[in-house]
Amino acid sequence: MQILDTNVENKIWPLFRLGFRVFFLGGALFSAAAMLLWILTLSGVDALPGVSNPIWWHAHEMLFGFALAIIAGFVTTAMQNWTGVPGIKSWPLAIVAGLWLLPRLLMPLHGELNGLVIAMDLLWLPIVAGMLARPIFKTKQWRNLFFVPLFVFLTLLNALSYYAVVSGQWLLSERVFITTVLAISALITVMGGRVFPFFTARATNTPKITPLVWLEKLSLVSIWLSAFTWLLLPRSPFANSLLALLLLVSGIAHLVRLARWNYQVTTGAPLLWILYLGYLFIPLGLLGLAAALLNIGISISLASHWLTAGALGAVVLGMIARVSLGHSGRKLEITRTIVVAFVFIILAAVTRSLLPMIAPSMTMQAYHISATFWIAAYGLFCWVYWPILSQPRADGHPG
Question: Which residues does 291 contact at the CB level (< 8 Å), separation at least 6?
Fold first, then answer.
């Protein structure tokens, strides 16, 4: 429990009292709006007048706009619990959130080549990294230090994505985006191992599964290696085969890891089964990328959407629904509306990942249907959680 001055805390607008509030709500709203702009663009509407490459914009904004906002909100909030040092809040948080938001708003109008947009978008994550480093060094909790170089690495990937679009190198853009997808998926596996079995044991009154050290090392090391190898390994038939083997090993390892977790007891707990269903898309996506490298029935773009529309979309929605309740002093109980949102995000994932494989002629319809389900899912979250995230904690405590 944080020992904070309640009088000082009450003077802060609730939205800026902890990182999860502004970044969860902002990220969810932005993802729904960005997906709407994407549907309009696919339909021939000039919804992105300043953007020269809408495909680049879609990939970039869903990763570096949506996903990293959620990650920043989660980690800045969790770091307070992990270290006991009060988290980023008030005007520093508002400044960082503003630096995140402005590029999202300006890019559709002024384009991805605008210098001011690029500068602001490359600034906010390093600031977050510095704010995370302070409590870690203060408490010497070196276990959590990896978030700092991770945010720096993601900043470098963001810079490389801008370099690729400025120089017109689409193959480099694709390489950077897939690397980012793999890195975010790897982060999900790290956090999943920390919290999914714990959440399950606590909610279902069942024993917490003891991890197998060798399996943890194999699954985590292989997926991180896959990310770095995808970025750095030169493309050749031999290199593709080597990377495919690594992805295959990682995919199987994560399937085994997931199978060991006590997912069977989660069927009556939506806040749990959404996490496990989302996690399932990670090994499926890894195996899909391996198949794509070997030219076996799937493209790299389609395989990557098992990780984005699937794992990222579902796990993020489940985690922000749960974390928002816990950190706002509320019981971990969700309404039917949020259960419907969970169903919608799974439908979005399956439609985007599976329909183009089994019915290639319906690929464009799959894009529209999936995006519509995504908008509905995250729109419902924003509708239900807006008062939760924008108002003081229900129990009267700071945060």
Answer: 244, 297, 298, 303
Structure tokens at 319: 């985690």
Tokens of residue 96, six digits: 């960082």
Q: Is the pTM of this model over 0.85?
A: yes
Task: Pick the closest to residue 316 from 21, 37, 14, 69 (CA basis).
Answer: 69
Q: Which long-range contacts (CB under 8 A, 24 or more apart) does 159-163 make?
A: 159/122, 161/56, 161/60, 161/64, 162/112, 162/118, 162/121, 162/122
Cβ atoms of 139 and 83 within 8 Å: the answer is yes
Q: Yes or no: say if 24 and 73 are a contact pair by the CB < 8 Å rule.
A: yes
Token digits for 211?
Answer: 């991890």
DSSP 2-54: ----HHHHHTS-GGGSSHHHHHHHHHHHHHHHHHHHHHHHHTT----TT-S-H
Contact call for residues 158 and 122 (beta carbons, < 8 A): yes
pLDDT at 1: 38
Handedness of CA 33, 61, 351, 197 (dihedral sign): negative
Contact 292, 306 (CB under 8 A): no
Q: Give the Cα separation of 51 and 46 in Å (integer).
A: 10
Burial class of residue 142 in the structure, from the number of CB atoms within 10 Å of its CB (0-12 exposed, 13-18 middle, 19+ buried): exposed
3-state secondary structure 139-155: HCCHHHCCHHHHHHHHH
Angle at 169 between CA 167 and CA 172, to 5 degrees: 125
Q: Give the largest Cα separation in the chain, rounded.
A: 64
Which single residue is written with the structure tokens 């089994």? 358
CA atoms of 24 and 29, how far apart (whole Å): 8
Query: Domain segments of the chain: what residues?
Result: 1-168, 182-399
Phi, psi of 52, deg, nearest 5: -90, -25
Amino acid at 26: G
Residue 397, pLDDT > 80, answer: no
Output the pLDDT for position 179. Answer: 98
For 194-202, the CB contacts below 8 A with 24+ separation are 196/261, 196/272, 196/275, 196/276, 196/279, 197/261, 197/262, 199/271, 199/272, 199/275, 199/322, 200/261, 200/262, 200/263, 200/265, 200/266, 200/272, 201/262
Above 60 in pLDDT, residue 388?
Answer: yes
Average pLDDT, the chain: 93
Confidence of residue 300 (pLDDT cuts 50, 70, 90): very high
Collapse the DSSP code of 297 into the 3-class scheme (helix H, G, I; strand E, B; otherwise coil) and give the result. Answer: coil
